[in-house]
Structures are given as structure tokens and as C-alpha cells.
Amino acid sequence: MNExxxxxxxYVKEMxxxxxxxxxxxxxxxxxxxxxxxxxxxxxQYIAPIYTGFIAGTLPLCSCSMIPFAYMINSLSKTYxxxxxxxxxxxxxxxxxIMLTYSYFDLKMAVFRLFGTFIFALAFSYIVxxxxxxxxxxxxxxxxxxxxxxxxxxxxxxxxxGIGKYLLIGVLIAAILKTLIKPEQxxxxxxxxFSYLLLSLISTPIxxxxxxxxxxxxxLSEIGFSSGSSLSFMLGAAGxxxxxxxxxxxxxxxxxxxxxxxxxxLFSALMGFMYDLI
Length: 278
Prior knowledge:
By secondary structure, this protein is mostly helical. It has 13 helices and no strands.
């Protein structure tokens, strides 16, 4: 019980600051009608995923702090594609994570992580746009006429409690998983033919703060995992977690969230497998 409480506390501690920063910034953008630098490019359904993917790659976000931004993008988009491109790129690609990957591994893995993620993100987002039609009744823009402090509080608390309650449930589940699954129990996976897929399945539900996954993946490579298997763990652990899946249910259809979860497991596994082939 003590170990669970410690894990739960650490997860909440690691998540709180980035989540708060994300909520504050996204609330400010919503208050000022998101400005043209966000809204105008989202009008073009073909360019929008490229734009949101690029923006995601420049921001220091993790799998939890990205959710308020994704919520805002979804409210301004005509399709789900821009939101999905953002959700795939944001936790995986940033100046920090790319530099850490280069530092702990090499240039090859850093470049592969960068371009591989963008290619998979765009392919997935365009498939989602064709497979999932966004209801026209959903709001596609904010229409606040005046930027008042009281209005900011309303938007902030709507985002904070609306998304935060889902994240808290997810963190609770993640803490339980971390308590039950020990790092040494993963060693047998390195000898399995399905190590890429198994590592993706194991790492995806667990919350790992952005950048933290790189030294952990390096440690895995030092105990017998291939570089590709370590990459699968890296992408699965940093990209999404149970709090992410639960959090995005606030504004995405459950079928799309399930598709997103399956995609992430396959994406992580395929990236690792492809890396070991080249």
C-alpha cells in the first residue's frame, strides 16, 4: 500500500506543473479566440495536420500537458486529423527529447525518431479524417467577444476540472500498474520474438514524463534489449499512457480513442522493428 501511495504521489507531482501550464496557455488562447496563427491554418483540412504536427514538435509537452492544447485544436478543426497529428507528435518530438536521444544513443536514432514520428503521424491523421467524420454540430470555434478576467476563470476551470478529473482517474490506474509491474520482470521480454510488441504493450499504459523515457530505454539496451526494442519502449512510454487515453475521452469519440490506443502500440512496435532492420 505504501508503494502504491508513493507511486500515485510521484505521478501527480510530475503531472501537475506541466498540466497546469498547458491549461493556462490553452485557456488564454481560447480567451483571445485563438488568434489567426492557430485558426486560419486549421481551415484547410489538408494542410492542418501538417501545421499542428509541426507546432507540436516545437513545444516541450508530455503526454498529459498536451491534452489541453489538443482540446483547443479539436474545437477549432473541421476534422479530427489536426488533433490526431498533434497528439502523436507532441509527446515524442521536441528539441529536448531529440537531443536526449542523440546524447544517450546516436544521431541515427534521433533522426529516425524525428522523421519516423512525423510520417506515421500524418499517415494516421489522414486515415482518421476519412474513417471518422466529425459531427457538424460540434463547436468549431470560440466566440468570446471580450477578453475579461472572469471569462478566463470560466474557461480555465472548465478545462482544469473537465480534463483533470479524467487524468486523475488515469493516474490512479497507472500507479496501480507501476506497483504491480517491476523493471526486472521485463528482462524475459528481450529474448522473445515479439519483444517489440510486448514492450509497446507494457510501456504504453505507464506514465513517463517527457525525456525520462530516454535514460530508461538506454538502461534496457544495456541489459540485453536491442536498440530497436529500446526505441519501442521509448515511444510507447513517452507517447501515451492511461491518463492520456482517459483524458482525451472528454472530446474524442470512444471508438477513435480505442483506434488511437491500438495505433500507438503498433506504431511503437513497428518503429522499433524497422530501426533494427536498417
